[in-house]
Design goal:
The chain has 34 helices and 38 strands. Strands 16, 17, 18, 19, 20, 21 and 24 form a 7-stranded mixed sheet that branches. It has a 4-stranded parallel sheet with strand order 4-3-29-30, sandwiched between helices. It binds one RNA strand through α11, β17, β21, α16 and β32.
Amino acid sequence: MHPDLGFAHSSRLMSGMRRQYPFHLIEPKSQSRWEAEQTFRAFNPGDEVPAEHPFGKRHDLGGRQATAAELPPKYYILDMFPYPSGAGLHVGHPEGYTATDILARYQRARGRHVLHPMGWDAFGLPAEQYAIQTGQHPRLTTEANIATFKRQIQSLGFSYDWSREVNTTDPDYFRWTQWIFLKLYNSWFNPATNRAEPIETLTYPNDCDTESKRRAHRDGKRLAYVSEAPVWWCEALGTVLANEEVIDGRSERGNHPVVRKPMRQWMLRITAYAERLLADLDTIDWSDSLKEMQRNWIGRSEGAEVDFAIARPTAAGLTESAGDPVTAACLAEQLTGTDKIRVFTTRPDTLFGATYMVLAPEHPWVDAITTAEQRATVEAYRTEVAKKSDLERTELAKEKTGVFTGGYAINPVNGERIPIWIADYVLISYGTGAIMAVPAHDTRDFEFATKFELPIVQVVQPPVEQADWRGFTGDGTSVNSTGPEVSITGLPTSEAKSKIIAWLEEQGLGQKTINYKLRDWLFSRQRYWGEPFPILWRKDEDGVPYHEALPESALPLLPPALDDYKPTSDGQPPLARAQEWLNLPDGATRETNTMPQWAGSCWYYLRYLDAANSGCFVDGDAEQYWMGVSNPKSEIRNPKSAAPGVDLYVGGTEHAVLHLLYARFWHKVLFDLGHVSTAEPFYKLVNQGLIMGEDGQKMSKSRGNVVNPDEILAEYGADAFRLYEMFMGPLQDSKPWNTKGVEGVYRFLGRVWRLFIDEAGEKDFEQRCMAQPGEEASFLAELKPAPRVQEVAPTAAQLKGLHACIKKVTEDLDGMRFNTAISAMMVFVNEAGKWEIRPAGLLRTFLQLLAPLAPHLAEELWAKLHEHLAQVAPSLSYAPWPAFDPALLVEDEIELPVMINGKVRDHIRVPADADNDAVQAAALAAERAKSFLEGKTIKKVIVVPGKLVNIAAG
RNA sequence: GCGCGCGUGGCGGAAUUGGCAGACGCGCCAGACUUAGGAUCUGGUCCCGGAAGGGGUGGAGGUUCGAGUCCUCUCGCGCGCACCA
């Protein structure tokens, strides 16, 4: 039979698609071995480690229970769990997962006890919308999607501990989400201790003399409370949205229009934690840009609140007062009573420059101060503003609008009478909803004053002489800032601020204040597919409704079965359709809102620690071992924080504020209440970059540039896919996909394969597979390493090549530089491919380096290189990471460039330990160098030991 | 507008504290093996130039013996926030 006859009948082989190596046999083989062995299971303190488990063997813990102190140092490496959509996995998902898997495998080899779990963030709108359309229960859709995601993720060979898998829609999971909600509900934030405390520690003011007053006081302090405030209502989605879910007046999901609407909603008091959420950013290892995004979101600004008296039109002696000083005594008289407007400013040093005041159109004082002549104008403006959506209000903000109310206020520092305007550039929701306008030193006020011809008075001198003070908003020196009672003229901005604040406080006219952009978190949604609130509503003796918590024993509170998942016709959430569920025999009714999708993802990293625990959200010992620094052997040393929490968390930037801020908030509450041992959940966080389509555009169905991982896997295998995702470039960068690049790393894996398996063996193997396709697996098992692979001592050069590779790969994995680690392995393999005799021991060490990145191929070859010694291979997953020997990397003689005036002109070889004088002499004696120096005077010779020689000549 | 980040071959990217720019991979060119090659192996590949040599890290200056790296200005791109007083 002609040897090539078989090939001709395979379209795959004929078309040049011949596999570089039999990954289609190797990958399922490795994966089923890991599954059978439970290779990647992590053990909680007190768990029995099976006698034969490779982790137990490595750490001498097999066959017994290990205490936290006996377990090796932990390494908790976490991926942002996915929302399992119907579309299946996208090539972007596995990028982060591959990076964490490589590190998880690397850290196991380094001897760490690795916790690397995966789960499903499975509540959410798409499954619910599908349910509305088809009547199919969202659980069925969700389960099908999870099955697809799980199959796809598992086909990549990730070393997750699947025994810890969580699913936010599982009653055994959301029971604890509800439990945490009850913790929030039953706690208040004590400003004196700066932390959350059980609601029982709340003290009541003396006037709380009835139970209903006490209840009102208590309900006003809870971390989870009910508010009637205006919220973002999205008609298309049939639900309210959090501030964070609204972008430019449209829903983040689906880009539907949203409107403001007052509704009764559950809120979480995240603002109480604003300062701690901000301050603790300094204790964690996140990228600067991410921290900056969180800081911006929290939006802390320091300044002062200042009271401006309202000048009533009837007030005598307060008419136009050109040079007619109004005394502080007169002002004090004005400020008795409540006729004052409080403004917030970050620049109290510019008080003397306040030439008018602006209120938000919705400000409660507007009616009272508007004069009869202006009333029609003011009303018209307010109506116009109310009609505008917030989108228009911000997008059309290029041109300032506003109207005069006819009212005046008194500037407390100089008694000036200033007009009060209303304008929509002042927001009711920030600060006090009112500002003092300093047009000379605030861009917005400047634009407004210019348009409406309001006076502009300089009160800050810019530090640079020539600079125009008009519109100058930086720090400088106060000028024109002397009043009858106080002067800050001549003071630099920071001193001027503190002096004027001190004076205001003394006079009872204002005080130092800190404001945050952060708002409380709108926590309820009018949906079906989310966690029901464990809350009942009752009415008191006066018929006033009030809420009360279900007991913990009533958890989990399951959502009712429904035939129709739409909201009710009168706009009630879908849960209101279930009358039996809704109405309790004792007359109470259930809360019909559900929690937002963020709820489940706020704490899933804690559930992984003890996923099957039915008595507790997480066992204390497990929590302390995996999250804390209580383990004396822990290698994590965080200088600023007592605790690391999750050692490494990898995910996309899309969660930079929402998920990460919410999770930090919940974690801090749990910390305050003593349920977790660290103040922060995620010590180190890395955002992977976006993978774009081959055209350099963001991948999307409409562009048709989406790459399906299943197809790549079928053609090149999981190892090549993993390797390519890492080889594309730095993890944090965005980069375009290029399938040709996959072929590059695939060829590299083929070269690795051929280092071990020679052509003759391979050909024979392929022919046998072709003849008996059913026997492929056993033919693979019989395949022997090439005769060139021998148990011999390596040469010095071979050892040096290997150890250079160990060094580079080790350092690069530590620094998460996967692309250059792969490049180092390519260099090694290119070199090793030339060796006539390939020392087996050396190749085994190389496989250990390759194993975290291409684990399937490494396992297969590792097994073969032990079989040929008639040994059963030890577990590659737990084989100790090779150390490099620096002594092997030292050169006796080194080549140095000789530069003349910074240009390389020659090279010299000198002993590695040659002193500078010897190197200089050698450089000056170098032939080519000499010819360049002819006719020139040598001014200076710089010798950088081990690097180069530079001769400055002219 | 403000804040953060980034600009290096035809392409993705290397160059860890200022020290031989372009590692590694893709693509391309040539060769070997071959009935064949979209397999594999070998060599080449920043630009100009036959060579010698010269030029070169978005642009313009500067510091330095020496700059992709540091400083100043400027242009371009990406991300975030967006009237937050």
